Amino acid sequence: MMGPAGFSFKATDAILVWDAPMPGTAMSDQTLYDEDFVAWSQQQVIALRAAARSGSNQLLDWENLAEEIEGLGISQKSALGSQIKRIIHHLLTLEHSPARNPKRGWENSIIDARDEIEDLLDRSPSLGREISGEIARQAPRAARLVIRDLGKRAEVDLAVAARVRATTYTDEQIVGDWFPPELAEPPSRAE
Q1: CA 61, CA 70: separation in Å to the nearest integer?
Q2: DSSP-assigned letter for residue 9
Q3: What is the DSSP letter of 2?
Q4: In 3-state terms, what secondary structure has residue 186?
């Protein structure tokens, strides 16, 4: 199937695959779909919109197909952001709450969220480029949640709220095995 000038597409099990790789990517016989879903979805959106502009005679709703595929990639990014927010929320709570009883639950939630992120990155390695941006985007949201939670337990004052808002984390602290130093021994991911 021919696409716009300079592009050639072939149908493989109803998946469009570019004959030539996109700039900066390498394609093997195995489709990008299997290697990195988010990168594949972005590539397919570009291909569908290019085919729509070229006036393809295929009876497909090109623009809506492109939007749906784009939405699939966006949902993967949203899942990454949600897990990052959960990690930040519970790291902040561990660092700033004097409560001892729920700490094991917060630690386990962090471990679970890190595992979810690992699964997302295994399926879509290109999401790794989104981690820093998601940390910056989700940190203020998580801080608001923590301040609200601490307030419900009468554990917050202006100084604590300021410290919660000022706390920052690196990519490695979020997706690695890091826990606040004052924690004796957080559970390992293997538990």
Answers
A1: 14
A2: E
A3: B
A4: coil
Distance, CA of 55 to CA of 174 (rounded, Å): 46
Enter the tokens of residue 144.
Answer: 């608001």
Three-class DSSP category at 10: strand
Token representation of residue 124: 């879509």
**Distance, CA of 109 to CA of 111 (rounded, Å):** 5
Given a contact cutoff of 8 angstroms between Cβ atoms, the answer to whether 90 and 83 are in contact is no
| Predicted confidence (pLDDT) per residue in 69-92, tens digit | 888 889 999 999 999 999 999 999
Tokens of 8: 């050639």
88-105 burial, b if ≥16 CB within 10 A, otherwise e?
bbbbbbbbbbeeeeebee
Q: For residue 73, give the 3-state DSSP assignment.
A: helix
**Residue 16 and residue 40 in contact, taking contact as beta carbons nearer than 8 Å:** no
**What Cα–Cα distance (Å) separates residue 16 from each residue in 3, 44, 45, 170?**
11, 7, 10, 38
Residue 81's CB is within 10 A of a number of other CB atoms, namely 18
Mind listing the pLDDT tens digit for each residue in 153-166? 899 899 999 999 99
CA distance 71 to 57: 25
